[in-house]
């Protein structure tokens, strides 16, 4: 006995009739939903909790941006009449990229996938739309296992949608007016808005979420008028929200020269573009490997949409980038020295403050070096400098921009829920001799893969604590998607996550520390706040004040009458240094008045005190935290 499943147009009732297959082969059942551009075939699967979930994978939301369409905004997908059978298969197409110096993927990659517990048009289910991280997820929505979207999101009563989009050398080029990755995402959001009801969704209850570069993309949509009305809440996990402006002209010139075409300064000539379009995908990727393609949508300074926001970081973010080099032996750490660390401070300051003034930069670099270089008695301790390096990059590039964004949104009345993920997973405990709650650590719990290391392909048996965190994070995230509040009922998930309250009278930034036992804590990353939010702007403002500069010049002129001009200027600079020392004294006083604690991490439900430099099996990148 057989039957057909036919979906009506958006304006009609969706009629469903299942194929009758042998009992127990539910994952092979078929169904068809009629979207606004054509029918798609999906499949039925059983989630871990026994709930039926419908999946539609690899639905085209745009025409392939190939051939003459390379480096052009994508166009909506063409209509089709026959059922699109590929929606029953695992994820369609990686976007073209280099992975471990190997070229993979295709420029034909603009597809999305849907996981829904219902396809009844009246279901009105809330939706989470996930934007993948180009770095740690290698630029493909499919790098996140389908079980994660199915078991820890869709099975909790929401629709989970993810999609691919262009990035790297195919997402930006000189003369192209917009970041093409952003326009791809916008096209996907528009498709979702038009078709949400056909898959049981509520187009007015979309939460846009992402991690890493995906979080930065979410922010760009929060600041874009073109994205207004396409989502009603936002989740941003571990974004670097302060980046140096991407030099698209410089990157484009390098690419053109690397592939043997002729670069035309500041203009896109027909011959140059035709030469580039004729180059195969792999050649473009190989020519781009040494070029910075960290392009982002440019909405700097634009106001943020007033929608509920969940925002957070992991404790030791930057550890991900460097622990990838640290595989089962510590030779990588041994290269770290005080001089290497000092060079890194200069790079971080340049990225954070984006200074062109050499004097201001030198003063700032010297100040930051003094704050982070506290181990004068043992300056040859490579483990100390490695830990300080990770701490510096984590606080400056992740923690400080995150709290700055959270405060800005909260001060405008936006509901903001701030978190820090502090749990060291069983996978990372077993993986490396140096431990840290690194970038992406919370992803394995959100997508129900708690034994999957973020640092390698090795899998481990999750502990009971790991499994409990899968349930806890899944509940918090889906509550936020459903209600704009992760703990809508007091004491739900065994914690009350209160929204950030921040104004001129209340400068403390409370946040949820997520771990084996999650709890609200009063001060988010206090040293990141003290140094990068309070002290650095104060120094820059003081140096930039015209009256101070005028005062120093006047003093220098007066002193030069008694001594020499150089001596007068030297004394003026000493006054500047005294002023900086005063600011440092204030910083030290504030720091000493804070409660200091020792880090504790959880392994197999037992807490052990961290020894950052010891030889025990339980180590961490960071020693004491500034609590």
UniProtKB/TrEMBL annotation:
The Carboxylesterase type B domain extends over 31-529
PROSITE patterns under this entry?
A: CARBOXYLESTERASE_B_2
Q: Name one Pfam family in it.
A: COesterase
Keyword set includes Membrane: yes
State whether keyword Membrane applies.
yes
Membrane-spanning residues: 566-590
Instruction: Tell me which stretches of the chain form a coiled coil.
Output: none
* Residues in the signal sequence: 1-28
Listed A to Z, the keywords are:
Membrane, Signal, Transmembrane, Transmembrane helix
The protein here is known as Carboxylesterase type B domain-containing protein
